[in-house]
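Feature request, filed as a ticket because there's no other form

It would be nice if the structure record came with a short human-readable summary line next to the C-alpha cells. Right now we just get the raw output. Example of a typical job, pasted below so the devs can see what we mean:
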Amino acid sequence: MKTYEIQNHAPIRLPNASRSFSPKPLFLERMKKLLGKDFYEYMEILKKPVANSIRCNTLKISPEELLKRLKSKHWSINQPFKDYKEIMIVKGKIANIEKLNDFAIKNSFRELVDEDEIIDLEPGELGRSIEHLLGYYYVQEIASMLPILALKPGPGEIVLDIAAAPGSKTTQIAAAMKNTGTIIANDVSLKRLKILASNMERCGATNTIITKKDGIALCKRLKENGFLFDKILLDAPCSGEGTLRSSPITYQMWNPNTIRYLSKLQKGLLASALEILKPKGEIVYSTCTHAPEENEEVVDFVLKEFPDVKIEAIKLPIKCRPGITEWQNKNYDKKVEKSCRIYPQDNDTEGFFIAKLRRIK
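Raw output as currently delivered:
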C-alpha cells in the first residue's frame, strides 16, 4: 500500500489539470483523523477524474426517449440506479460502431460493448450537444443530485431554495414538482443569478420566482410577511473539500479560518430557514465539504436551539456513512448520526454531506 506522508506530501496532478497542487499538511491530518484506515483509498480516488454524469430533464423528455437519442449518437450510457432512471453516466463514445452486430443496432445498442471500444467524448461535446442546448439534460455530478432525492419535493408544494445558483438543484426541484406549485430560488450574487435564470429558461422551468437577497435577510423578510414553506433546500456555501476531484484548486484555497467563518454563516442560514418552515415541513441541509464544523456542528446547533425540530433518517441509492458525534474535543447530539456523509472512494463520486430536518409542530 502506498504511504502518504503527512509532512512534505508530493504534489498531486489530476487528469486534465494544467498544474499540480499540494494538499496542505493540516488538511491531510484532518482527513486522516476523519477516515482512519480509509484515508489512503481516499487520497488515491482524488487522482481520478469524476464520471461524466447527467440528469434527464423530465419537464421536456422522458429518460427512455433521451436514452434513445443519446445512443443514436453512439454514446455509451449507464443508468446506475433502477429507481432513478433520469440519472445517467456518459461513459464515452463507441469508437468502432461498424463492429456492432445487427442485433445490437436493432436493440439500441443494449448488447454490451467492450471497454476498449469506448473512447472519451471530445472536449466540450457534452455541453454543446443539441440535447443539452434544448434542455433535455443537465450536466450534474451525481452527488449533487442527492439532496433533492432526500428532500422529495412534490407537485403543488411551496419550496424555497436559499442558495440556488447556478440552478442544478433548482431545475431538479422543478422537474420533481412537474412545474406546479411555487419555487422561490434565491441567491446573493447577480452574476450567478444570470446563470440561474438562463438555466431555468433552457430547462423550461416555469414555476419559479427568482430573488436576489442575502439568505438570512430574505428569511427574515419572509417571516415578517407570514410566508411559510412546505420544503426548503439549504445547499450552503462551504469550503468545497468534496470537490477536489473536479476542482483541484480547492487544495490551494483550503483554509481552516474559512471553515470557522463558514460554520458561523451556515448556522445563521439554517436557523433563519427553520423560522419559515411550516409545521411538519422539511428542510434539507447540504454541503460539498467533509469538514465537521460545517456539517454535524451546524446540525447539532439547530437541534439544540429548536426543540420542535427533529432529524430524519435518509435513504439514498448510494453508500452513506453516518454523521460523526465527536470532533476536536466537541461532542455532538447522537442524533446527528442520521445525517449522511458521502465520500468519493465509497461511490466514485464527489464528496457531500446531507441532513434532513422536520419541524414537529
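Something like this underneath would help us a lot:
The chain has two domains: 52-139, 143-359.
The radius of gyration is 21 Å.
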